[in-house]
C-alpha cells in the first residue's frame, strides 16, 4: 500500500478507535435490594443503578449475565468474565483482580429473633467458638477480615450454618435451627418490608463488619486503562452527588 494512503487511512481510523465504546461482560446474582428483577422484569437495585451510572460515565458498554457469586469470582479469576459489582476487597482477590475506588459502604449485623438479644451473650465474634449458638451466613459472601480468619478454625466453623440466601436463613431462624444470621441492614429492611415481617427481628449489638464496597475487574481480561476510566467516573459521580443520590433513594425505598 502506498505510504501516503496508509497514513491517511490511519488518520481516519484512529479517531474512530479512540471513541469506540469498550464493552465488558458483567454478572449479577439475586441480592435484594441490590440486584433483582422488579415486577416488570427489569433488572434494578442499588448496585445495578450505581454500576450503570459509573460505566455510563466511563463510556463503557456492558452485557450482564445472571450467575452465582462463587462462579462469578472463578470466572473473573480465569478471565472468562470481565467485571463484578458489589465486591469486597481481599488480599486473595487482589491477586487476580483490580479494584476500583469504593463506590459505597457496607455494614453487616447479627440479626436475632425479637427479644433474643439478652439470651445470646456474645461480646466478640470469637466468643462464638466457645458457645452453643449456631449462626447463619450466605455462601460466598465476605463478612470481614476477623470472620475470614476465624472461619478457618474448626471450633468456630462448627457454629456456622452456610445457606444460599437470606430467605433460607429466615426460615432456619423461625424454625429454631439457628440462633441468628449475618446480614446487612439495607437487605434486612427490604426483606422485612417485602414479606411484612415488621417486629419479628432485632439487631444484636455484636460488631461484625463495616467496610467499603468496590467494582472488581479481571486482571486477565481487562487493563489498568479501563480501571482508570472507572475510577475517574466514580470520582465524578461522587463529586456531583450522583452516587449519594442513588444510595439515598434506595435507603428511602426500603426504609
Automatic annotation (TrEMBL):
PANTHER family per the UniProt record, alphabetical? AMINO-ACID-BINDING PROTEIN YXEM-RELATED (PTHR35936:SF19), MEMBRANE-BOUND LYTIC MUREIN TRANSGLYCOSYLASE F (PTHR35936)
Keyword line: Signal
Q: Which InterPro entries match?
A: Solute-binding_3/MltF_N
Question: What is the official name of this protein in its record?
Answer: Amino acid ABC transporter substrate-binding protein
Q: Which residues form the signal peptide?
A: 1-20
Taken from the record, one Pfam family name reads SBP_bac_3
Record keyword Cytoplasm present: no
Limits of the Solute-binding protein family 3/N-terminal domain: 23-254
Family to which the UniProt record says this protein belongs: Belongs to the bacterial solute-binding protein 3 family.
Ranked from the top, the taxonomy reads: Bacteria, Pseudomonadati, Pseudomonadota, Gammaproteobacteria, Alteromonadales
Amino acid at each position: 500500500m502506498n505510504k501516503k494512503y496508509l497514513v491517511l487511512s490511519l488518520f481516519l481510523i484512529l479517531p474512530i478507535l479512540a471513541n469506540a465504546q469498550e464493552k465488558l461482560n458483567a454478572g449479577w446474582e439475586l441480592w435484594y435490594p441490590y440486584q433483582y428483577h422488579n415486577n416488570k422484569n427489569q433488572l434494578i437495585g442499588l448496585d445495578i443503578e450505581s454500576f450503570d451510572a459509573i460505566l455510563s460515565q466511563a463510556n463503557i458498554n456492558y452485557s450482564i449475565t445472571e450467575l452465582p457469586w462463587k462462579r462469578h469470582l472463578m470466572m473473573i479469576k480465569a478471565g472468562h468474565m470481565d467485571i463484578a459489582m458489589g465486591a469486597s476487597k481481599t488480599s486473595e482477590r487482589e491477586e487476580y483482580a483490580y479494584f476500583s475506588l469504593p463506590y459505597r459502604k457496607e455494614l453487616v449485623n447479627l440479626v436475632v429473633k425479637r427479644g433474643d438479644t439478652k439470651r445470646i451473650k456474645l461480646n466478640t465474634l470469637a466468643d462464638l467458638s466457645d458457645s452453643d449458638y449456631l449462626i447463619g451466613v450466605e455462601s460466598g459472601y465476605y463478612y470481614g477480615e476477623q470472620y475470614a480468619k476465624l472461619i478457618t478454625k474448626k471450633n468456630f466453623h462448627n457454629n456456622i450454618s452456610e445457606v444460599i440466601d437470606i430467605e433460607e436463613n429466615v426460615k432456619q431462624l423461625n424454625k429454631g435451627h439457628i440462633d441468628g444470621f449475618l446480614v446487612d441492614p439495607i437487605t434486612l429492611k427490604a426483606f422485612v418490608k417485602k414479606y411484612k415481617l415488621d417486629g419479628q427481628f432485632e439487631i444484636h449489638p455484636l460488631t461484625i463488619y463495616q467496610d467499603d464496597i468496590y467494582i472488581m475487574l479481571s486482571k486477565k481480561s481487562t487493563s489498568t486503562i479501563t480501571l482508570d476510566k472507572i475510577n475517574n467516573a466514580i470520582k465524578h459521580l461522587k463529586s456531583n452527588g450522583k452516587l449519594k443520590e442513588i444510595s439515598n433513594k434506595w435507603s428511602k425505598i426500603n426504609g
